[in-house]
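Customer escalation, tier 2.

The customer says the design service returned an amino acid string that "doesn't look like it belongs to this structure." They asked us to rerun it and document both sides in this ticket. The original structure tokens are below, unchanged.
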């Protein structure tokens, strides 16, 4: 849905990405409005380099377009939304710099605006990476919904940048004001974090997983992923319970996170090519690192590809043999199954006839209904009290 946002300086038409007319969710919230109102009411000069971190759908970057902001995001969807929203409002795309979490941070930051992300780890990593560019005169203002700002959030600002206080709440949003202290002894950046996988989960048992900040389940294996790993189609000798298990072919780890699923397949089926896809730059970097620490052979390495994107968009039709996914059911804080639908639809389009989509999910999510609707079939591969592994075949 495209909707009109009234800011102190303009009326903007904004939408999320991908734009969906059935989607009633706006591309901004009260915390974006509060921050923009504060900047206008306080007469804050936005001189020098303005850095916007954590903008969800580009509302802040678009509203502040005249100040030539630098956006830092971990999300491919945020980048696409920002580009589309800038264009929708006639902004010159060249006036804005769009950086990802994997890029070098700006050398100097004069105004730092932080839309508090869902992940405290991502906030920690971003503040630590930006801190060297912050000086005693940098204006730092954070914003978020009250439920997203915790004592731990404020402590991070305190520990990394300097003294921090919050505003009163307005429309369930709150601002964070931080006065940078350039003399502060900053903590070392703990990211990326690695952990060792448990036993009994197939080819990755006892292996190492590398996690960049903000990645799904960065400190321990997700229980759904664990169940999935016990039932993947590894082939003869593996622990999978289904699929023809033939080696070779093209496998996609869709929504790869730290890449544990695709790495398990690469180890079990070394003649296969594995494509790791995620919309998070940190996730794709983690997947690449996980894959590399577990495959020491140069020939094996040639068989993996790492791609940041929206699901399977951009992949040719009928080009893959197996898609494996533990789909997200949250998108930037909102609970939604729209992404899972897009992923399943993308799998139907990109699988070759006879190719299979394997999905793990909570039983209550009812993915089998969606799979039957899209593929005309859905088979239960495994289940326990909480999870199901389902398989759909492209006929
Ligand atoms: C439930 S996590 C699963 C991660 C990993 N496969 C695992 O099992 O640990 C879902 C993943 O999907 C990714 N994701 C969300 N929306 C996406 C999209 N539109 N396209 C690709 N990946 C997406 C998230 O960033 C997240 O890493």
């Amino acid at each position: 849905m495209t909707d009109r946002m009234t800011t102190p300086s303009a009326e903007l038409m904004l939408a999320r990405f991908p734009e969906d007319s059935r989607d009633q969710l706006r591309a901004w919230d009260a915390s974006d409005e509060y921050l923009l109102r504060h900047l206008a009411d306080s007469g804050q000069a936005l001189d020098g380099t303005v850095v916007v971190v954590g903008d969800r759908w580009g509302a802040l970057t678009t509203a502040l377009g005249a100040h030539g902001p630098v956006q830092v995001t971990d999300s491919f969807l945020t980048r696409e939304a920002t580009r589309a929203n800038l264009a929708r409002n006639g902004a010159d795309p060249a006036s804005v710099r769009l950086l990802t979490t994997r890029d070098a941070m700006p050398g100097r930051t004069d105004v730092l605006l932080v839309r508090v992300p869902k992940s405290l780890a991502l906030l920690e990593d971003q503040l630590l990476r930006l801190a060297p560019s912050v000086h005693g005169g940098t204006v730092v203002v954070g914003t978020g919904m009250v439920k997203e700002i915790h004592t731990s959030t404020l402590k991070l600002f305190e520990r990394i940048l300097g003294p921090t206080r919050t505003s009163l709440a307005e429309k369930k949003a709150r601002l964070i004001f931080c006065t940078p202290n350039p003399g502060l002894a900053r903590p070392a950046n703990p990211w990326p974090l690695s952990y060792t996988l448990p036993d009994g989960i197939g080819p990755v048992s006892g292996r190492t997983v590398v996690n960049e900040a903000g990645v799904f389940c960065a400190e321990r294996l997700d229980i759904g992923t664990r169940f999935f790993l016990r039932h993947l189609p590894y082939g003869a000798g593996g622990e999978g319970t289904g699929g023809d298990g033939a080696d070779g072919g093209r496998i996609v780890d869709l929504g790869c996170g730290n890449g544990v699923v695709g790495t398990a397949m690469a180890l079990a089926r070394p003649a296969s090519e594995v494509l790791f896809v995620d919309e998070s730059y940190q996730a794709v970097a983690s997947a690449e690192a996980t894959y590399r620490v577990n495959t020491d052979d140069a020939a094996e390495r040639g068989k993996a590809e790492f791609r940041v994107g929206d699901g399977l968009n951009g992949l040719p039709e009928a080009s893959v043999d197996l898609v494996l996914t533990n789909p997200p059911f949250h998108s930037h804080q909102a609970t939604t199954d729209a992404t899972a639908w897009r992923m399943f639809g993308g799998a139907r389009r990109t699988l070759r006839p006879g190719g299979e989509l394997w999905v793990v999910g909570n039983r209550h999510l009812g993915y089998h209904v969606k799979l039957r609707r899209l593929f005309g079939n859905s088979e239960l591969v495994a289940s326990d009290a909480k999870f199901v592994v389902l398989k759909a075949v492209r006929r």
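Tier 2 assessment: The sequence is consistent with the input. Residues 162 and 240 are 51 Å apart (CA to CA). Residues 216-217, 222, 225, 255-258, 260-261, 277-280, 283, 310-311, 326, 328, 339 surround S-adenosylmethionine (CB under 6 Å). Sent an explanation to the customer and offered a walkthrough call.
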